[in-house]
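#struct-help
A.M.: can someone run this one for me? Single chain, 275 residues.
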Amino acid sequence: MLEAFDLMKWPLLACLLLPGLLVYLGLHIVRREIIFVDLALAQIAALGTCVGILLHYEASSWESYALSLGFTFVGAGIFTMTRTHDHRVPQEALIGIVYVVTAALGILLLSRSPEGNEELRRTLIGEVLLVTPGQVLRTFALYGAIGFVHFLCRKKFLAISFEPGRTAAEGGSIRWWDFLFYAMFGCVVTSFVQIGGVLLAFSFLIVPAVCANFLADSLGARLLIGWATATAASVAGLYGSYVLDLPTGAAIVCTLGIALVLTMIVSLGRGSKPA
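D.P.: on it. Structure tokens below:
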């Protein structure tokens, strides 16, 4: 038992400490109805890592991280400029295109690497079991700083996500705040992709937020439900991966999927629907 705790201690801390901010940002993303923007930004971050690998940098090096962050800022600019109220071309369609193209570029780049298939697998499901104390603490410090900015500017960020029409009508500068939101969101996603991969980043952002939307109406209640869902799924997924000798990231993603199914059953039993 002690050996298991030593092995899973830092992965457990990573999955308990880091998803808190992801759940909060996921509520914004679900409300904006651009569900795949986090998947697209995660893939853009992974593309930066692929470029770093092609330049012979280690995937976990600061050079690869800087490239991922730079690519993500470009993505943040693209998504800021493509947010319009004209539904002739929905923003979700453009986000999907960005995701597909960056995923294809990543495959092309890694085809030049002798370990391309392994790197592709790692960018998808990550290596959360191999996370180091330094990675967890640095990422937690970054998330704390971004969370503090969100707290200070919460009225503006909530307004552009939950009431964009009223904000625009009042003459608010949506584009600048949108870029700031996406840029910080990109930092969050880039950091977590380095630890957990694209699939786990997407799952922590969206699944707890969707579960919370099924069960609650207020933002505070949704946050609590989202955090509880992420915590329970992390503990169950990590335990299952250890006992059954399964890939840790994939096990947590599947556990989050089970949590969503259970939430939907409870919601249907109550006769409620997501707001």
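A.M.: thanks! The first helix runs from residue 2 to 17.
D.P.: also worth noting: The mean pLDDT is 83.
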